[in-house]
Every structure is written in C-alpha cells, then in structure tokens.
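Notes to self after the call with IL:
- keep both proteins in one doc
- input above output, always
- annotate only the second one for now

Protein 1:
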Amino acid sequence: MSTTHPQSTTADRRKVVAATIIGTTIEWYDFFIYAFAANLVFAPLFFSPAGEGVAMILSLLTIGLSFLFRPLGAFLAGHYGDRLGRRPMLVLTLLLMGGATTLVGVLPTYASAGLFAPIALILLRILQGISAGGEWGGAVLMSVEHAPLGKRGQFGMSPQLGVPIGMIVASGILALMRVIAPGDAFLEWGWRVPFLLSVVLIGVGYIVRRTVEESPVFQEIREHRDQQSAPIKQLFARHGKLVVLAALLFAGNNALGYMTTGGFIQGLASRPTDEGGYGFDPVGVQLAILLSAVVWLLSTMLGGWLSDKIGRKKTYFIGWALLLAAAIPLFELVKLGVGGIAVGASFMAVGLGLTYGPQAAWYAEMFPARIRYSGVSISYAIGAIIGGAFAASIAQALLQAFGTTWAIVPYLVLMVVIAAVATALLKDRRDIPLDIDFEKSGQWESWHRDQAPHEAGRKS
C-alpha cells in the first residue's frame, strides 16, 4: 500500500523541507525574542508600578499566557486544516505571528501610555499564542506526509529544526543589539529592533511557503471527499487518551527547554546582582545560549535520523536519560559564568534534540489521516501548556521562595519522569501507512490495538 501520493516528487519534498524550516524558524524567532525581552526589559518598561519582584513575575507570566491560547489556535487550525488543507493554515499562522511581533516593536511603554501599554502587550502575546498553536501541526504534516517510507523521522525533523535555528538567529541579533545599543540604549530602543525585523522575515517565509504543494495525504482526502465535518469531536471521542499521553510526552521536553527558550537562564545570568541576577556579561550570555542552540540543532537532526533506525521510543528514552543527567548540575554550571552556561545549556540541548527530533513523525503516526491535523496540533498545544507555559514563572517563583536554584531541580526532574512514563505507555508505530485508504480499510484501528511490528508497514 502506498504511503505517499504519486505526485510527491523529490523536488516537491525538497521544497517542503525548505519551506517548513524557513517558516518555523521565523515563527520561533518571533516567539523567542519575546521570551528574551520578557526576561530582560519588559518588567521595568511595562509592569514597573507593581514593584521590582512582582513586575518580574508578571513579565514572565506573559510568556506563559500565550500558551493558554495555543489550544484555541490548535482547535481552529486543526479544524480547518483537516477540512481545507494544511498549506492555507501555514500561511495564515505565519502572517499572524509576524504581524503581532512587529507591533510589539512599536508599542509605547507604561511611562508614556499607562495601562494601555501592558494591556496591548498582553493582547499581542495572545495573538502569538494562537499562531504558534496552529502553525506547528501544519508544518509537521506537510513534512511527514510528503516523506518517503523509512525516512519520516528525517523529514519530520525539518520543522523541528526551526526551533534551534530561530533561537540561534534570535540570540545572535540580541547579542548584536547589546553591542550596538549597550546599557540604557538597549532599554530605550535597542530591544525594539529584533521585533521590527520580523517584517523582512515574513516576506521571505510567505513567498517560500506559497510555492509548496499541498500535502499528498490531504489531496487524497479531498479527492475522496472524506473531510471530517467535526474532526475535533471525533478526535476526543475516539482518541482522547492518546491525546493526553502525547501531550505528556512533549511536556518534559518543553519544561527543560524553556529554561533557555523561555529566557529564564539568560535573564538570571545577565540581570544585575541588585536585581536578583548574577550580573554576567549579557553579550557573552547570549553567545553561550547561541552555542547551545547549535548543539540543539545537531542533536535534533540526530534524533530524527536515529528514530528511523532504532525507533521513536528508544530514541526518546536515550534523550530522557540525558536530560535527567543534565538537569541536576544545570544551575550550578550557570553560576560559574559564561563558560558554565555554555556547557550546561549545551549538555541539556543534546537530550532536548533527541526528544524533539522524532516528535513530528511519532505524532503523525499516532493519528488517522482525517483527524491528524487536529490530533497533532491539540496534543502539542496541551503539552506546551503543561510543560512550557509557566516553566520560567515556576522557576522564578521557586527561586524567590527558597532562595536557591536547587529548588528548581526537583521540578525539572519530575517533568522528565512524567514524560518518560508517557513514552513507555505509547506504542511505537514507525512506518505505519498514513494514507486515507489504510484508515478506511479499518486496519488503522487494529494496528494501534494489536501491537503489530513496524515491519508490516514496510510490506503494506
């Protein structure tokens, strides 16, 4: 049985890989510069009347606030992505994210606009969350559903690369702006430049994504007129437990990842000591995080490739073991300075990549074709809330409550353990056929019920 559409040529696949990498890079660049700014400048600029400590927590909470609206983006994009197609949702979510990010760059501060400033910031952050909730599922399915059999991990890894690449770009630009606009200049105007640069990136991403062919699986669904009228209802009625386990699978990766992608370590390391930080050179801190993002990029590529060779589940377990080993000394290494940050964050990045590279392929293989967009998007969005939404805020609250970063470590360890349990309970369905005919034949349900070996997928 074919698992790719006859029109899914090598050229189509190359375009898809390029488009998903560029698109998700832009999405996550936008997301990361907000997280970094929330840790570095938003507290005094938008929440200063609340007092120093509370302002910092409020600023960090706006990072998590957007996660609460990711499910809305996932529901909307999932519903229309399963009915209208994957590609239209990709373009819309990209434009929404870029537009919201650009507007953050021109917002007035509390000093000049009063309450309007934090309210507008929060509203724009909500739009970012809606966009992020819908974007990932479409990018994943475009990659995995175009992939040849036996290489879904490698193709599905391409949108995952957008996260570390976006972090590399964001860290590099923030480091550059720290040099161009040091000290008060960064607080006054330097932080705005990375947000305004989204205008250029939107144009590039939009052009690239418009040239990509629709997913071959959705083409088959449309040709058979098999779109679900209520895909989300079907998803929870028949696959609710699977959604919960898939969400928990992502939560562990997200909680640890948001120590850097959420900007917590950068903020802690570079804030002055009289503001509760370590007072390290902010440029050096950003460059250390940039190095860890390069390691994350490489380990994500390794994770996708390895999952095609030894399976999704085995790759994840290796990653969880490495993350447990990295979480314990993480903050002790951060205290050592820029070099320690580079070592600690890079060590953690290896485990992050091995538990992120295979995610797209494993998620896509969990859900049948007609509700797949809804399934992967909603699972991802819920996992992001459980794991990453308030990871930075929780870490900051634990630090302030106990006065030591050791209080954060049990929280991170617990999240990894929960995700590892979910990994054990999920079935590895590497190479299961993804097409609509396989679903309609009734074999999808029996495959997921009967622990069939993945080699059957290669023969079908």
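Protein 2 (the one to annotate):
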Amino acid sequence: MQNSPSKSALLVMDMQNSVVSRFVAGEEALLPFQKAIEAARSHAIPVIYVRVAFRAGYPEISARNKMFGGIASRSGAVAAPEAMMQIHESVQPRQGEPIVTKVRVSAFAGSDLEVILRSRQIDTLILSGIATSGVVLSTLREAADKDFAITVLSDACIDADPEVHRVLTEKVFPQQAEVVPVDVWLSRL
C-alpha cells in the first residue's frame, strides 16, 4: 500500500494587532510572514489564522493562570477593544480563510482548530507566529502529540528575546519539527 501525499496548512498565529504592536518594531519584520502567506495561497495550501481572545468579563481566565490571570484585573473585566483582537493589516486573511479563536497559549486550547484540520484531512502543519516561546512552542508540542508532521518557519516567528528564539529554533524545535527559513520552505514547494 502506498502512502498518500501529505496535506499541509500554514498556521499564522497571534498576528493580531495587540500582539504585533508589542513585538514588532518595523514592518520589515513582517515580510517573512507575508511571503509565506502568499506562497501558501499560490500553492493551494490552506492558510489558517489563530488569535487569542476572551469574552466580556473573562470567564475563561482563572486567577491561577500565571500568563492570563492578571488580564481581568488590569482591564477592569471589560473585553479588549475589538480592533486589538483583529488580525494585523499586513497579513489580513482573505475571505474563506478561517480565523480560529483560542483561549490559552496553544492554538489548540479551547479552539476548533483540530476539527478544521481533521475535516480537511490536513496532516502537516507549517507554523509561524508571535511569540516563538509562546504560541509557536505550545502549538508545536501539542501538534506533535497529536501526530501532525510539523515545519517551523524560523524567520516567520518572533520572540521578545532573540536568544530564546535561537535556542528554541536551533535546539528544541528540531526534536519534533523541521525548522527552516521561509525561503528554504518556498524552494521545496
């Protein structure tokens, strides 16, 4: 029996206004993301966007959650402005490209991402996003546990700490994923 060809999807994670405004100093840092998205589209690879968002009053957030627990108290339990939760204009989704909303760090946490992937018979994920030590790391680990093949686009990931980004992309991620710059990934399409 022959193996069927893999079916890939590009995940563009946490590229929403609230995150991009904190991590990206200049538009040139977004060029690898734009290049990957356009290449995926031109090769009929689905592009799936992932964002983090919460309901008014933050019922999804526990005070024990070290990463998200302080959000409700800092914002007076009022939902973040909708504009801050939207995908950044430089990497806007096209009509029909899903936007998955998650409530934790991993793209799978509290979202319907796995349902979308399985319904499309996707078995290979190409990961991009902000931050390398946040959504990319958490999603990579969970995707590996769910038996997806994984590629991380090293220059389409950003972290506040360049050394953490380097250690993750050079030492940690290769244990469970192929890690390549966007141009290398493009050369293989």
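Annotation: The longest strand covers residues 149-158. The chain has a mean pLDDT of 89.
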